[in-house]
């Protein structure tokens, strides 16, 4: 998944303003205790990060975005 696709999906799931907040503020255990942004900055594959988002927010991410 391209980084631009990742951000588009995150914004579709959470809205543009909240997506940025989620990415920088929420620590996900699925990402070894890092935020989404920290994981991306560390070079974690976007697919791995997206799967962590889906696992952390199963009720928030629409099935069409899985």
TrEMBL record:
InterPro entries: DUF3046 (IPR021408). This is DUF3046 domain-containing protein.
């Amino acid at each position: 998944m391209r980084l631009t696709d990742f951000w588009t999906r995150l914004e579709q799931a959470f809205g543009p303003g909240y997506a940025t907040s989620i990415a920088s503020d929420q620590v996900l255990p699925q990402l070894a205790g890092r935020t989404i942004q920290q994981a991306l900055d560390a070079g974690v594959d976007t697919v791995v990060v997206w799967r962590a988002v889906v696992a952390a927010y199963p009720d928030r991410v629409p099935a069409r975005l899985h």
